[in-house]
Amino acid sequence: MKTSDFTTTFLVEQTPEEAFNAIKNFRDWWSEEIEGNTDKLNEVFIYHYKDMHLCKLKLIEMVPDNKLVYQVLDNHFSFTKDKSEWINTKLIFKISSEGDKTKVHFTHEGLVPDYECYNVCFDAWTTYIKKSLYNLITTGKGEPNPLEGVGFNAQISEKWRLS
Questions:
Q1: Where are the domains of the chain?
Q2: Is 15-144 a domain of CATH 3.30.530.20?
Q3: Which of 117, 126, 122, 151 shows the shortest CA–CA distance to 48?
Q4: Across-strand partners of 24?
Q5: Within 13 Å of residue 117, how many CA atoms lie on the same side as its CB?
Q6: Rounded distance, CA 84 to CA 118, Å?
Q7: 112 in helix, strand or coil?
């Protein structure tokens, strides 16, 4: 059965443990604008990008050096009619050995071509995963969105606050 969820894969020379640890460090490959823990099971964190995207995620499954699953609990896009398109979707990272390399397989389960945000999200995930995360794993330096400064906390309403 063919799935229409967004998915992408890449191979690296590093170990599954190195890939796993890099993936959990969202601040070093996705965005420095993250509040909360991204690497602890059942912890919730908030991702923020300018006035365009606010997202609350929870790490719901963690198999060391093999799998990470994050569920989107809440979401807000400023550029779509349906602001909540990602709610209840999952970010799934599967790590495996392939010969002497490590394979990282990413699926955004529920992000499908029918979504208004699909093309923008396709381009963004491709860059974040295949460039920034890949670089973090292979060189130790990703290319996350930089901190915007004071505006981050000011833009998060009480609904989004973690504490």
A1: 15-144
A2: yes
A3: 151
A4: none
A5: 23
A6: 13
A7: coil
Residue type, 113: P
The pair phi, psi for residue 3, each rounded to 5°, is -100, 150
* Per-residue pLDDT tens digits of the chain, which is 163 residues long: 456 899 999 999 999 999 999 999 999 999 998 999 999 999 999 998 888 889 999 999 999 999 999 999 999 998 999 888 999 999 999 999 999 999 999 999 999 999 999 999 999 999 999 999 999 999 999 999 998 765 555 555 555 566 5
CA 59, distance to chain mean position in Å, is 11
Backbone angles phi, psi at 23, to 5 degrees: -55, -45
* Strand (E) or helix (H) holding 137: helix 134-139
Whose structure tokens read 């397989």? 105
